[in-house]
Amino acid sequence: MSSSSEQKWTFKRIRDLVQAKLGKRPCLWQMKVALALYEGKKDVVAVAPTGAGKTLSFWIPLLMVLEDGQDKTGVIITPLNLLGKQSAESELLARAGISGDVEAGKHRVLVVNPEILSMEGGHFERLWKKSAFTSKLLYFAFDEGHCVSTWSEFRNKYKYMANLRYLISEAIPFYVTSATLPDPILHDVVSILQLHPKNTEYICRSNDRPDIHLAVHRMLWPANSFRDLDFIIKSGFKEGDPPPPKFLIFFDARKETEAAVKHLRSRLPESLRGKIKYFHSVMTSEYREDEYNALRDDEIWGLCVTDAFGMGLDLPDVKLIIQYRVTCDANTLWQRFGRGARGDGQEGIAVLFAEKSFFDSERAKAAEKRAKKPKKRKPRTQKVKDSNAKRARIAPTTSESHASEDEDDPDADTVYLEPLKRDETTIRNAQSARLLHPVMDDFINAPTRGFLCRRKPMSLFFSNDKRGES
Fold first, then answer.
1. 156 in the same domain as 45
2. 275 lies in which domain range?
3. Which of 292, 316, 314 is nearest to 303 (CA)?
4. Residues 6-61: pLDDT tens digits?
5. Nearest to 350 by CA among 338, 364, 363, 358
6. Domain's final residue, options 183, 204, 225
7. Backbone φ and ψ of 231, nearest 5°
8. Are 171 and 288 part of one and the same domain?
């Protein structure tokens, strides 16, 4: 990009500009991203930890072009409406004179989801045909860029984002940023967005969060009792007692969030039961925004949530993050754990509550039990001509079909199948079959597999050993 200013942009000049406009000192990786987007010659992929300031990297190149007197606009494509609203209403924008208010005619930055951006006959379809608009575009930024791959099956408009390159005559750089872009997902994102290897700049940091302490808790009670969460609200809790640390508990089903809240509230006096809420996609956007603000402002203690709260939402002082049950992959787990300790100087605790069947010790016991069990000889039966009678004979009775259910077993709805290979460890749930990825297996069983720290499996999965810390 040719600059109207004779002064060249250096890291020192960028740092001084951001410090003056926003009162923040940018990191080296943020300035590298900004400089690459300002020059506009290459697409950019950036990986940085949750809470590291990826949002700031959207604004710095806009500050640079404004400083040079250029009229430019950035487009941020975001998966979640609340995340987009949070970005557009950032205090940083107000301070720097950058606004996302299209209706007011101040569109230095547009925050939009992929469905609106690619709507047939929509507002953007008309804008792509107007060079007066497209000539002002500085970049297309894909916030939480891993969603281009991981969400593309149910948010299929992500699959067609590369079409933007053919709808617009100008060459506008793509900027993909996320905390969780392991190699398989990154390769998929590169393919979907058609990022050319020789025309893409990679700025990748370790995504480790040493300020978040990791733990795995073996569940002791049936999962649907939620009694493993009782430590959050101690027995006999009464008004005036110190509140629990600010917390988020992640589930993969809306009904579970509501049932967990009901259980935790039952341990509180009636006057305090509104201090714990649930937050999922069925709630109205106004409700979710209100509860997000209430947690931010310490009006409530914690939320039981689904992925509607999972990415990018910036609360500085969440102390406790819990993933309830092993129902997600490593990418999702790391995003959820990353909601904790996002403020300067903060520390948090992140705990995976795992069903006992996922632990090596339990697998060994199950294998030993199977080995000792005598093989049953197949009983000889007479041929049955009547097909209905035959089906009745081989069908299990009601008592037989529930013989394996144990009300005191947190894994009552899970059957462990003998794995063919270690990387094909399969757990069959009563509702669906789910595959336990090796990194999750290693994370759960790190102490018995020679890892000195639970971080090690995650660090290897995300290639943190190959990435810098700048």
1. yes
2. 212-356+445-466
3. 292
4. 689 999 999 999 999 999 999 999 999 999 999 999 999 999 999 999 999 999 99
5. 338
6. 204
7. -65, -20
8. no
